[in-house]
Give the backbone structure.
Amino acid sequence: MKSLVSIIGPTATGKTKLALLLAEKFSQNFACIDVISADSRQVYKGMEIGTGVDMPPDFKREVGENFFQKGNERMHGVSFLRPDEEWSVTHFQKFAREVIENSWAQNGLPMLVGGTGLYHRHLFNDDPQLEIKPNEEVRKKAVTMSIAELQNWLQKVDATKWELMNNSDRQNPRRLVRAIEVALSEKPRDEQKSQPPFTHIEIGLTDSIEHISEKIRQRVEERLQNGVLAEVEKLIADYPPEVWKGPAFSATGYKEIRQFLEGTLSREEMIELWTRREIQYAKRQLTWWKKDFKGQWFDVAEKDWMNTVYSMCTKI
């Protein structure tokens, strides 16, 4: 029977670390282990420090390949797109399915790892809305509109969608525009769920928000020490302001660092804002996964939780 391991949870709980430990532990049992990053920002090249790509130095990328490899262990979905290239749930779905099918064809074990909830939800769900292409007319008009005007537009074309949106989405111009595009499309809106035949082990990592917040603070300091300021300086030089309005640079930290480099924030203010955004993101992830996860949770602050995870995976 084909198998898939999914590791989910909020940021700063050690998902990638666990995946690499499992890959090494079970690499002798499979022809290959294919770890797939389900992180919507780690796909971009030149943003490895700020987005926290945890790539061990012994993983190497061969010329012409989009994955990193150590022996029969492979890491997919990190550092392979420019920040000005398009990437979406639909792109991820197609990409991840192909990696998984190729892994199974080679008698391998694919592992899906990351905190972007929509990526996990839609991996094997065929949602017609994902196929709706960008509406250039809508986007051209939206560029000239304020948040309030976009909100009014969505309420007129799809009041139900507006009511279902949380406050964060209502303040997000990209999500408002996408909702308007979907509302104006004639595509069907029923989500069809497929049931592919495979064994799916779902592992959820969690921790108290206090512990997560402390790890985030430490991680922000580590990324500053590891050269994220120079990383952002190069990105500013390489990409014009219109690219900075796109999805890639909505990753936490980048806009705050840019404001610091341009002199509109002090170092202390930059660190505080960046840290706060990371913590807010972790809280949203916790809320998402509490209502959207059907697997087994593991508190990483508890003793011996990893041994239980190992035992689960031996059943594959």
